[in-house]
Amino acid sequence: MSEQVKKPIKITETILRDAHQSLIATRMPTDFMLPILEKMDKVGYHSVECWGGATFDASLRFLKEDPWDRLRKIRDGFKNTKLQMLFRGQNILGYRPYADDVVEYFVQKSISNGIDIIRIFDCLNDLRNLQAAVDATNKFKVQEGRGHAQVALSYTLGDAYTLEYWTDMAKKIEEMGADSICIKDMAGLLVPYKATEMISAMKSATKLPIQLHTHYTSGVASMTYLKAVEAGVDVIDTAMSPFALGTSQPATEVMVETFKGTEYDTGFDQNLLAEIADYFRPYRDECLANGLLNPKVMGVDIKTLLYQVPGGMLSNMVSQLKEQNAEDRYYDVLKEIPQVRKDLGEPPLVTPSSQIVGTQAVFNVLMGERYKMATKETKAVLRGEYGQTVKPMSQEVIDKVIPGEERITCRYADLLGNELEKLESEMKEWKQQDEDVLSYALFPQVAKDYFKYRQAQQEKVDMTQADTTNGAYPV
């Protein structure tokens, strides 16, 4: 028998970003991460995802930390491992589309502060909203020799999302100049045998490496990874066991053990992984004890597969109904969600499209008349501000919600002039580093509150004693 051809599966570790974002609302502080980085650096990960997504907002808003400072400290701790971030196309990490000059500057600063791989996605899979970030990464790569642009496709189900759609997108991503492709399955909708089909088809359509990211929400993720690896996927995203499963990723140690002794063997040291898990376990227990980790998010939510609705969107919907004393309308809203999604051109349900569709469905049910009241976000989607959807939007709904309004067919960012100078002038009194301008651009009010807090810390001022109305501070 011939010697096995070795094809070790590569692993991206998510415990420093998506795992704690999914389970404890991104509340893991930087100081807790630092002592374990040296051990994590020895594992041999393909990359460690540690930044972007909601870490930026949560750092400033809840942890009173500078996200740029976190990135630099993590970079210092990883001498041999690539660092990765999640980036929302033209929205960067904020909630509105930014001008290209801001996108380019953010990419440049992310890479120069330590990021190697930028995973870029758009909630409608509109590739026009990703081009500026890909171009900026490639430009920096030419100048500095560092930076990797990975384009992520938000995985979803529906008539429009055929194998041909995915393979066609893969080819387009290669043409865009991306370095790799990620299938981003935020709701755990990709089932094992579909993964075999999809990965095989995409592999035949593109030479780019393909990475698979999924969540354990629906209970199938580990099996999906097994089939995807057998079908030739290059990298999978996993989380160390204390922060794995539930709405997070499959456990790193389990996947390592699964492929042990096969052609896909990672070669990782289980004893080293056990030491890393031992470090995180007491923190998990603490999060369970103080309520930060809700046991509800640890289980399997099969409704995700039944209704194709991500877990976060379901919980959002339940709390909206609770506030209106209308919990008995739960199933009516669940039925309405696919309708609204269809009206809006069948977008993938991922931030922010999931929240937009969910909230509109709640309104439609509670008002007793569809689109009697439309949110400003629904109007923006119908206008074309978020980009091009895979299927046409309902003309009837357009006529009802934004009658006579002109719709945008170009890339929305083309209508925005440069913004950096203006942002810089608005916040110059707080600026202590170039990166502060970007923090302010993404979250103006939250960043300003943080800058005030930072200044008070530096000047050793007791904010509780400060007379803020008259601007007097005791020293």
Taking all Cα atoms into account, the compactness measure Rg is 23 Å
Question: What's the helical proportion of residues?
Answer: 40-55%
As laid out across the biggest beta sheet, the strand order is: 1-2-3-4-5-6-7-8
Taken in chain order, the helices and strands follow as EHHHEHHEHEHEHEHEHEHHHHHHHHHHH
Largest sheet: 8 strands, parallel, barrel
Mean pLDDT: 94
Beta-strand residue fraction: 5-15%
Give the distance, in angstroms, between the N- and C-terminal Cα atoms: 79 Å
Give the secondary structure arrangement, pairings included.
Elements: E1 10-13, H1 18-24, H2 30-33, H3 37-41, E2 47-52, H4 55-63, H5 67-77, E3 83-87, H6 100-112, E4 117-121, H7 128-144, E5 148-154, H8 163-176, E6 180-185, H9 192-205, E7 210-214, H10 221-230, E8 235-238, H11 252-259, H12 270-289, H13 303-307, H14 311-323, H15 330-343, H16 353-367, H17 376-383, H18 395-401, H19 420-427, H20 435-442, H21 444-458
Parallel strand pairs: 1-2, 1-8, 2-3, 3-4, 4-5, 5-6, 6-7, 7-8
Helix pairs in contact: 6-7, 8-9, 9-10, 14-16, 15-16, 20-21
